[in-house]
Write a structure and sequence with these properties.
Elements (H helix, E strand, L loop, with lengths): L11 H10 L4 E2 H4 L5 E2 L4 E2 L1 H6 L10 E2 L3 E5 L2 H7 L5 E4 L4 H7 L8 E6 L2 E8 L6 H5 L3 E4 L5 E8 L2 H12 L6 H9 L20 H11 L8 H23 L9 E5 L6 H11 L3 E3 L4 H13 L6 H11 L3 E3 L4
Parallel strand pairs: 1-4, 7-11, 11-12
Antiparallel strand pairs: 2-3, 5-6, 7-8, 8-10, 9-10, 12-13
Helix pairs in contact: 5-12, 8-10, 10-11
Length: 327
């Protein structure tokens, strides 16, 4: 890509900021997902850009979350009637904003952003790049205050959502509360590997789970409740596996797991996870992305001093629900 076909490259959050302010910047957290940013310098890597045929002149300066981009353009200010208010670069990547809202009291935590997909990781000052991280497909993405989110993607509620679609087509319209109650009544303990490629997008998710259990010599789900419990039980087990890989690479001990996002409302899965990993699970807030976004702006306005003051405020306003290992 050269300047013959484009003037600048903007990521979607940066495009929105440009439409509001007419100023072009590249926010750090979203830029870090491009695989074109040097995780140590926090700048675009010219060698990587050249390797994929992108002219370095197309890239905008990298700015950190909380940076004042500019003020609302005159035309938009006039049309909206809200004046030329400041426009702040928030953590443009949704997980970065969510991790900013983890109500932790010390660095000794791991987080799990739980939704259709799950992301488990830690917040560190420097990127972690070694053979173990490469082998296990961990990535270094940008966080607030120049930190790095060292994390791994895990399949989340996607598997359950696909099962729910199939049940709905057969006339069984289960709500999420229904499915949690169903799973609570089941003691089914066969396990699948949620990250097995066969569960990425099969034609029939229920049939794929059945086949996996048969092929691995395990009991096959006998009811819809068994399928749901199998998925929750397997996710908790997978979280344990990933956490065990993560622990030796972490520069600090991991004393608790913070679950944020929509999945934090699933008490059964939170308890199964605490049982599996053997450390406390603190669940919430469920709307972590929006909360983190707001407080980054509050910090930029001088209302908060740093991420830890942000997190103390979040912990007070949205107290996490605690789950302790039972068995």
């Amino acid at each position: 890509i050269s300047q013959e076909v484009a003037e600048k490259i903007l990521f979607i959050p940066d495009l929105l900021a440009y439409m509001l302010t007419e100023r072009m910047v590249c926010e750090y957290t979203i830029a870090s997902t491009s695989q074109l940013l040097n995780p140590e310098t926090h700048k675009f890597d010219y060698k990587l850009l050249e390797a994929v045929g992108v002219s370095p002149t197309l890239m905008c300066p990298v700015v950190m979350p909380g940076t004042l981009i500019g003020r609302l353009s005159e035309s938009i200010a006039r049309k909206t009637g809200i004046g030329e208010i400041p426009v702040i670069a928030v953590a443009g990547h949704d997980t970065a904003s969510a991790v900013a809202a983890v109500p932790a009291s010390s660095p000794n935590f791991a987080y799990l952003s739980s939704g259709t997909w799950s992301l488990m990781g830690i917040e560190v000052e420097k990127p972690i790049i070694n053979e173990v991280s490469f082998k296990n497909n961990f990535t270094n993405e940008g966080g607030i205050e120049g930190t790095t989110r060292f994390l791994k993607n895990i399949t989340g509620m996607w598997i359950l959502e696909r099962c729910r679609e199939q049940w709905k087509r057969s006339g069984l319209d289960y709500s999420y509360d229904d499915m949690v109650r169903m799973a609570e009544l089941s003691e089914f303990t066969s396990l699948i590997n949620p990250d097995d490629p066969r569960f990425a997008n099969p034609e029939n998710m229920l049939r794929e789970i059945t086949a996996y259990c048969e092929e691995t010599g395990q009991a096959v789900p006998a009811s819809d409740a068994d399928y749901v419990h199998c998925i929750f039980y397997s996710l908790a087990n997978r979280y344990k596996e990933v956490l065990e890989i993560l622990k030796p690479m972490s520069p600090h001990p991991i004393e608790r797991l913070h679950v944020i996002g929509g999945g934090s409302r699933n008490d059964l899965l939170n308890q199964l996870t605490a049982n599996a990993i053997g450390i406390p699970v603190l669940a919430g807030p469920s709307e972590a992305t929006a909360i983190g976004n707001c407080l980054i702006q509050a910090k930029s306005a001088g209302l908060l001093t740093d991420c830890w003051e942000m997190r103390r405020l979040i912990s007070t306003a949205f107290p996490p629900k605690e789950f302790y290992p039972e068995r």
